[in-house]
Amino acid sequence: MKIESIVHEAINDTDRVITTVVIDEVSSQCILARLIIKVLGKPGIDNDLEMLGSGDRWMIVWTQPKGQIHQTRELIIQAIT
């Protein structure tokens, strides 16, 4: 698995951003989901995480405070390695 892109979009009038990470070369979406949940937490309980995709290309989307965007790459790398 490798990170194709990471994009942060500011949410107007808040201190939060929408973070979108595209991961390529995914051999198993089940393994990817387990790894992402281990690092970011459970969707609907710990965050508003969504995973979209099929085959070997997946997009993970969630909101987070602006102050945490510098940690995003490290968290995703930690998850997929």
Structure explained in plain terms:
- It contains 2 helices and 4 strands.
- The chain is an alpha+beta fold.
- Strand 3 and strand 4 form a beta hairpin.
- 14% of the residues are buried.
- The model has no long low-confidence stretch (mean pLDDT 91).
Run of helices and strands:
EEHEEH
Q: Report the total helices.
A: 2
Strand content: 35-45%
Whole-number mean pLDDT: 91
- What's the total number of strands? 4
| Cα-based radius of gyration, to the nearest Å | 12 Å
Oligomer: single chain
Low-pLDDT windows of residues: none
Distance between the termini: 8 Å
Major pleated sheet: 4 strands, antiparallel
Keyword list:
four-stranded antiparallel β-sheet, 4 strands, 81 residues, alpha+beta
Write the layout of secondary structure elements.
Blueprint: E1 2-10, E2 16-24, H1 29-40, E3 50-54, E4 57-65, H2 72-80
Antiparallel strand pairs: 1-2, 2-4, 3-4
Helix pairs in contact: 1-2
Compact summary:
The protein has helices at residues 29-40, 72-80; strands at residues 2-10, 16-24, 50-54, 57-65. By secondary structure, the chain is of the alpha+beta class. The N and C termini lie close together (8 Å).
